[in-house]
Amino acid sequence: MSDKKIAIMVDQQYQTLEIWYPYYRLIEEGFEVDFVAAEAGKTYPSKEGYPCVPNVTASDADPNDYDCMIVPGGFAPDFMRREQSVIDFANKMVDGGKVIAAICHGGWLLCSTKAYKGKKATCFMAIKDDIINAGANYVDEECVVEGKLITSRKPDDLPAFCVAIIKALT
After folding, report:
1. At 84, is the pLDDT very low, low, confident or very high (cuts 50, 70, 90)?
2. CA–CA separation, 44 and 30 (whole Å)
3. Structural domain tally of the chain?
4. 68, 105, 111, 143: which is the annotated catalytic residue?
5. Which among 68, 104, 123, 162 is annotated as catalytic?
């Protein structure tokens, strides 16, 4: 078993594959994984209605307990950044030098942090201007690893995205 702990951020309208694929893949590797959101115990539906019930609130989550934060896409990141506790947790993870991984629209939450400043990154093309304005050097690639920042564009990139996360944590 690994001693590494991962926070997967959750909110309504998440992209189903972008939460559950990494969750089960990282569990397979022996990592401890928490679902973190503004409210623990609340059911957050995916875009298709698939439920996810976070077990930790962002305000109670101690960034020192986590080695990695994963931000899935869908429309969830737009809701995440409306919650100050989620933004605070994300900023503490970035400032703490943790592994930060965002896929698809997940980059929206990172725009509320300094994660992109001067770093190469990718995302779903619709938010390209947002991450550029947050300081990223945008590239259209399957998976970009720049230091402890890992970014991917879409669900098709999940295999490379998860491999990069696992590599960064081992």
Report:
1. very high
2. 25
3. 1
4. 105
5. 104
Has this prediction a pTM greater than 0.85? yes
Identity at 122, one-letter amino acid code: T
CA dihedral 16, 18, 23, 26 (to 10 degrees): 160
What CATH number does the domain containing 96 carry? Answer: 3.40.50.880
Answer yes or no: 68 catalytic.
no
Amino acid sitting at position 57: T
36, β-bridge pairs: 9, 56
Tokens at 68, concatenated: 């990695």
| Structure-block tokens of residue 138 | 């945008």
Alpha-carbon gap, residue 123 to 129, rounded angstroms: 10
State yes or no: is 105 an active-site residue: yes
Kindly provide the b/e burial profile for residues 42-59, where b requires at least 16 CB atoms within 10 angstroms of the residue's own CB.
eebebeeeeebebebbbe
Domain that holds residue 71: 5-169
Give percent above pLDDT 90 in the chain.
Answer: 99
User: What gap in Å lies between CA 73 and CA 54, rounded to an integer?
Assistant: 16
CB 56 within 8 A of CB 34: yes
